[in-house]
TrEMBL record:
InterPro entries per UniProt: YidC/ALB3/OXA1/COX18, YidC/Oxa/ALB_C, YidC_ALB_C
Bilayer-crossing regions: 7-28, 34-56, 110-134, 176-194, 223-246
GO biological process assignments: protein insertion into membrane; protein transport
Name of the protein this chain belongs to: Membrane protein insertase YidC
Record keywords: Cell membrane, Chaperone, Membrane, Protein transport, Transmembrane, Transmembrane helix, Transport
Gene behind the chain: yidC
Record organism: Actinomyces johnsonii
Subunit: Interacts with the Sec translocase complex via SecD. Specifically interacts with transmembrane segments of nascent integral membrane proteins during membrane integration.
Membrane topology, record value: Multi-pass membrane protein
The Membrane insertase YidC/Oxa/ALB C-terminal domain, residue ranges: 36-259
Biased composition (Basic residues): 379-390
Extent of Basic and acidic residues compositional bias: 295-305, 355-364
UniProt region (Disordered), positions on chain: 281-390
Comp. bias (Acidic residues): 335-347
Length: 390
């Protein structure tokens, strides 16, 4: 195990030692103490920043899973009652095609956790090896930059009186057991809450009521994972528990910000988001999001009805030939009318979305069209004058 994890152990030790040196430079005491505890917290922050793209992918995958729920439910209804191997295989194939279509993967929500596991075990092995490194019995002179002297400092550092390298199972000190149990409880609760945020609060009604096996497995994991960590936590050193608690707290804050500001469509979080935004818009005298969406939909329907569902393209001007003279088929007025019709429909949608009255929209439309016709008349006059001077 140590051989396989050796590169990661060196990387973990290097990050911890580097952060410790930086903390000492800004005034923290050298030697055993809080600086080494903060170095583990710093290691957690570095890791979480590095896996930020995976978190974004996790959020996108979660949204994709919710958006495909109507199609997923239709697929389940299609194969309902069919339990023969061929039908199950076709259902799985069509389900995977849906995932590819929406660019999502139900396992993407586990990526941040899976990527952290090797680092988690590397930190576990580094802390477990401190005693051997500190006494010179490790088999290597150091773990990267973590020398014998530094290993003694880390080993002597503590959290609420519990050594960073001690665990519930390998210590008879009451303080270690109390701190371990407290941190395991915090770790399990935060683990459950982070998964509940993603699986319940930011999930549409269709997804919550879905019989999709992937959704059911996510709900099951929400309860199973905290239990697994609670049971196995008695074997983790205090330093590892510090890492995991900080990581869970980071995830909670990250998900809270994301769900609050970018909720999934149809979720309870989106309802709260709309309520907050509408309250702010009301204080500014602006229409609500729903009113604005209805106005935009009405304007779009009006524009489509006026143009027969097709966008009217402006008539291209017939360019004058080099020999002089204007094509007799040129129709500037027709061109201007077509252009005005398109612009009117676009401006109507834009103006209504900003809460303008019909009278204000009509006035602005009249002024714009009058200005455009004056400009067109001036251009024609200039062209005629230029033609006479030739």
């Amino acid at each position: 195990m140590d051989t396989l994890l050796w590169p990661l152990k060196v990387a973990v030790a290097w990050v911890m030692v580097t952060i410790h040196k930086a903390l000492v430079l800004i005034g923290f005491p050298d030697g055993p103490g809080v600086a080494w505890v903060l170095s583990i917290i710093g290691l957690t922050i570095v890791v979480r920043l590095l896996i930020m793209p995976l978190f974004v992918k996790q959020i996108r995958a979660s949204r994709g899973m919710q958006l495909l729920q109507p199609e997923m439910q239709a697929l389940q209804a299609k194969y309902k009652g069919k339990k023969d191997p061929e039908s199950r295989q076709r259902m799985n194939e069509e389900m995977m095609a849906l995932y590819r279509k929406h660019g999502t993967n139900p396992m993407a929500s586990c990526l941040p956790l899976l990527v952290q596991m090797p680092i988690f075990f590397a930190l576990f092995r580094v802390l477990a090896s401190l005693g051997a490194v500190a006494t010179g019995n490790y088999g290597r002179p150091s773990i990267g930059p973590l020398t014998m002297e530094l290993a003694k400092q880390v080993q002597a550092s503590s959290v609420f009186g519990a050594s960073l390298s001690s665990s519930f199972m390998n210590s008879s000190v009451t303080q270690v057991k109390i701190v371990t149990v407290a941190m395991i409880i915090i770790m399990s609760v935060t683990q459950w809450y982070t998964m509940a945020q993603l699986s319940m609060k930011n999930m549409s009604t269709e997804s919550l009521n879905s019989d999709n096996p992937m959704i059911r497995s996510q709900r099951m994991m929400m309860y199973v994972m905290p239990v697994i960590f609670a049971v196995s936590g008695v074997n983790f050193q205090i330093g590892v528990l510090v890492y995991w608690v900080v990581s869970n707290l980071w995830t909670m804050g990250q998900q809270f910000f994301t769900i609050r500001n970018m909720p999934a469509p149809g979720s309870e979080a989106e309802k709260r988001y709309r309520a907050r935004v509408n309250a702010k818009r009301a204080r500014k005298g602006l229409p609500s999001l729903e009113e604005e969406e209805r106005a935009e939909a009405a304007a779009k329907a009006e524009a489509e009805g006026r143009t027969g569902g097709q966008r009217v393209q402006p008539v291209r001007k017939n360019r004058q030939k080099k020999s002089g003279g204007q094509n007799s088929d040129a129709r500037p007025d027709v061109e201007q009318d077509a252009t005005d019709e398109v612009t009117d429909s676009e401006d109507s949608a834009s103006s209504k979305s900003h809460g303008l009255s019909d009278e204000e929209i009509a006035r602005r439309r009249y002024e714009r069209r009058a200005r455009q016709r004056r400009e067109a008349a001036a251009r024609r006059k200039a062209q005629a004058k230029k033609k006479r001077n030739r």
